């Protein structure tokens, strides 16, 4: 029997009157933009600055730790459901050393198949149909899909573009400091009696915003006042630049017992294919998330868990060197994009630069990104895919700078020309 497909590639209903094959909660989600643009990069031979993965491996000693674990037979069979003890202990030690957060590795740390599973398990565990989730928009695309799968309702609060003119009478708006900011009043207004979860992402993908202490204080006070749970995605915790500071939401008064904090090895150690993530929180929260997680992957990444345990114990010099390298790449790409005519929103964190294409005489990010490989041999991502309010994201385009310096230099050369 032939199966019809919709324009999104999903199986569609035939003429027999049957309902569509795809669960209606997922009907709005087709093939991800990352798959589409990565395929376009391959087809056109373009430089892929769309999908956020490094083009070089992380520290050699961490890779060798994975090889050693494989050869020693550690993790080649099913690891423990919560994760190998060595990694859970390393995560707890990392949170204590860097943030003064104390977690019991046996009851308050859970290893997941990357941050993506951590997000899915957390939302599936904590939501029931009809619950509302307030999320910062634009948001990582899996947030919307996971909320839908859990039967929840997403309520976006939009980070707004902001321009700060240079000081002095001769200031040129071409040199304006551009960023995206959270409207705290809008956040408060979004919370209703049906709100169950605040889904916070800082450092924020795709805008590069790092929430300030004042903003996080207000979020914490709101969560306590309205008795809300918080899921906070902090996978870019080690990629903050200039004067920005990453402060875990769980460190604020009243937040430890209501916050599920998500971390990941992929972004910090440049081994994104290993898919090793984790969640930390109170025993009650972690127990709930584990109940959902065990029916997703159950376990994963056995040998890699041992390697990540060693990676988390690397000296502070590694983390600082990694941050400095990424900041230099951010500056290289940002300056090149400015010279090519884009308005650039300088990120305070992550490894993405958001640009405004309107100075180029363009306004449709989708059309721009689909044409860019043929025009310039470079692939980017239209930010509108991360918005419910598509018009708000229409003129913005995201570029990734987690690539080798020579790759970024070639991309800049192509865009300038």
Automatic annotation (TrEMBL):
Query: Which top EC class is given?
Result: transferase
Chain ranges of the Aminotransferase class I/classII large domain: 47-415
Under catalytic activity, the entry for this protein gives: N-succinyl-(2S,6S)-2,6-diaminopimelate + 2-oxoglutarate = (S)-2-succinylamino-6-oxoheptanedioate + L-glutamate
Mainly resides where? cytoplasm
EC number per UniProt: 2.6.1.17
Its subcellular locations are: Cytoplasm
Q: Which SUPFAM superfamilies match?
A: PLP-dependent transferases
* Superkingdom of origin organism: Bacteria
Q: Which GO terms describe its biological process?
A: amino acid biosynthetic process
Which Gene Ontology terms cover its molecular function?
kynurenine-oxoglutarate transaminase activity; pyridoxal phosphate binding; succinyldiaminopimelate transaminase activity
Name the cofactor(s) required for activity, per the record.
Answer: pyridoxal 5'-phosphate
This protein's pathway reads:
Amino-acid biosynthesis; L-lysine biosynthesis via DAP pathway; LL-2,6-diaminopimelate from (S)-tetrahydrodipicolinate (succinylase route): step 2/3
Task: List the record's Gene Ontology CC terms alphabetically.
Answer: cytoplasm
For this protein, the record's Pfam families field holds: Aminotran_1_2
What sections of the protein cross the membrane?
none
Keywords of the record, alphabetical order, are: Amino-acid biosynthesis, Aminotransferase, Cytoplasm, Pyridoxal phosphate, Transferase
Residues in the signal sequence: none
The record's Gene3D superfamilies line, in alphabetical order, gives: Aspartate Aminotransferase, domain 1, Type I PLP-dependent aspartate aminotransferase-like (Major domain)
Coiled coil location: none
Note the InterPro entries from the entry: Aminotransferase_I/II_large, Kynurenine-oxoglutarate_AT, PyrdxlP-dep_Trfase, PyrdxlP-dep_Trfase_major, PyrdxlP-dep_Trfase_small
- Please give the family membership noted in the entry: Belongs to the class-III pyridoxal-phosphate-dependent aminotransferase family.
Q: Which PANTHER family match?
A: FI04487P
The record's function comment reads: Involved in the lysine biosynthetic pathways. It catalyzes the transfer of an amino group from L-glutamate to N-succinyl-2-l-amino-6-oxoheptanedioate (N-succinyl-2-l-amino-6-ketopimelate) in a PLP-dependent reaction, yielding as products N-succinyl-l-2,6-diaminoheptanedioate (N-succinyl-diaminopimelate) and 2-oxoglutarate.
Question: What does the record note on quaternary structure?
Answer: Homodimer.
Protein known as? Probable N-succinyldiaminopimelate aminotransferase DapC
């Amino acid at each position: 029997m032939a199966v019809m497909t919709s324009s999104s590639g999903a199986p569609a209903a035939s003429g027999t009157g049957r309902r569509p094959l795809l669960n209606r909660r997922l009907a709005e989600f087709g093939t991800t933009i990352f798959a589409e643009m990565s395929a376009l990069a391959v087809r056109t031979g373009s430089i892929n600055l769309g999908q956020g993965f490094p083009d070089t491996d992380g520290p050699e000693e961490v890779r060798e730790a994975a090889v050693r674990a494989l050869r020693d037979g550690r993790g080649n069979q099913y690891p423990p459901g919560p994760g190998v003890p060595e990694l859970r202990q390393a995560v707890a030690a990392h949170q204590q050393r860097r943030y003064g957060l104390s977690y019991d590795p046996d009851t308050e740390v859970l290893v997941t198949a990357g941050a993506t599973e951590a997000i899915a398990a957390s939302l599936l565990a904590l939501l029931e149909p009809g619950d509302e989730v307030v999320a910062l928009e634009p948001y990582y695309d899996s947030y919307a899909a996971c909320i839908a799968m859990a039967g929840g309702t997403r309520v976006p609060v939009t980070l707004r573009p902001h321009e700060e003119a240079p000081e002095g009478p001769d200031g040129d708006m071409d040199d304006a400091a551009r960023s995206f900011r959270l409207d705290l009043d809008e956040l408060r207004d979004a919370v209703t009696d049906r709100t169950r979860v605040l889904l916070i992402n800082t450092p924020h993908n795709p805008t590069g915003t790092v929430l300030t202490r004042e903003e996080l204080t207000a979020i914490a006070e709101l969560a306590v006042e309205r008795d809300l749970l918080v899921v906070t995605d902090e996978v870019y915790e080690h990629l903050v630049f200039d004067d920005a500071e990453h402060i875990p939401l769980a460190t604020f008064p009243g937040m430890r017992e209501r916050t599920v904090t998500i971390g990941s090895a992929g972004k910090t150690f440049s081994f994104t294919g290993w898919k090793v993530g984790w969640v930390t929180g109170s025993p009650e929260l972690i127990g709930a998330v584990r109940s959902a997680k065990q029916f997703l992957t159950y376990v994963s990444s056995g040998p890699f868990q041992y390697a990540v345990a060693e990676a988390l114990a690397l000296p502070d010099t590694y983390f600082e060197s990694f941050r400095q390298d990424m900041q230099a790449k951010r500056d290289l790409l940002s300056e090149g994009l400015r010279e090519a005519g884009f308005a650039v929103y300088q990120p305070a964190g992550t490894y993405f630069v958001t640009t405004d294409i309107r100075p180029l005489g363009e306004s449709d990010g989708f059309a721009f990104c689909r044409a860019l490989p043929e025009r310039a041999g470079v692939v980017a991502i239209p930010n509108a895919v991360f918005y419910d309010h598509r018009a708000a994201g229409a003129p913005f385009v995201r570029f990734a700078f987690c690539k080798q310096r020579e790759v970024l230099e070639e991309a800049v050369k192509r865009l300038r020309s």
